[in-house]
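The pair is quoted verbatim below.
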Amino acid sequence: MKIWHISDSHTYHKLLTIHENIDIVIFSGDCSNPRDPYNNEPEVRNFIQWFKELPIEHKIFVAGNHDTSIEKGLVKKIDFSGYNIHYLENDYIDIDGIKIFGSPTQPTFGYDWAFQKKREKLDKHWSKVDDDVDIFIVHGPPKGILDLSYDRNHKLEYCGCNALKRHILHRIKPKFCLFGHIHNCDDIINAGVLKLSDYPTVFSNGSVVTDGKFGKLSSNGNILEIKI
C-alpha cells in the first residue's frame, strides 16, 4: 500500500504535484495561516475542497497549530467526513488491517497557537495511545528527529517533543511516524524521511514549505510504502 505524506502547505496546496497510484494520502497539519479563527476558516475550507477532489481512495487529515478554526469548532469533523475524509483528533482508524492513530497535539512553541500543551503534560497525553499502532500521525515531531530550527534569538534548537520520542521509540514502535510543523529554514533541511539504526520506525517530515519563502514549495511530500 502506497502512502503520500504531506504537511504544512499553508494555503499553497495547489502547487503540489499529484502522484499517481497512491492508496492513502495523509496530511499532518497546517493547511492554513491566520491565528484568528474567523479569518482562518475560509482557508481551511478551501483546502478541504482541494483535498476531497484528489483521485486517491483514502484521505486522512490531522490538524496543526495554524488550523485555529478547527480547534475553535468553526470547522468540524463532519465537514471532513461529509467528503469521505478521515479527520483524526486523538483517535484511530483501521484501513485494510492497518491501525492508524492521529493527533494534532504538539508542545507549546513560540506563540500560543492551536492544539498545544505544556511539555510537562505531554507524557500523560501520549501514554493513552495504544501500543499496537502501525502508523502514528502527529503535527509536531519527536525531539531530535527532523526538528532543527532557530529560536527567537536565532540560536539553533531541537523543537520536537521528548515525551513523544520516548513513546515512539520504546513503547509503541510504529512502522511509521508522520509529522510536519518544523519546516526547512535557511540552511537546514527537515523535510524528508529518516530511519534510525536499531529502531523499526521510519520517520517522515512531510512539510512542503521553507520558512521565510512561502509562495513556492521546497518539497512535494514523501512517498512511503507499507505492506498489508
Observations:
- The helical segments are 37-52, 68-71, 77-81, 122-127, 162-172.
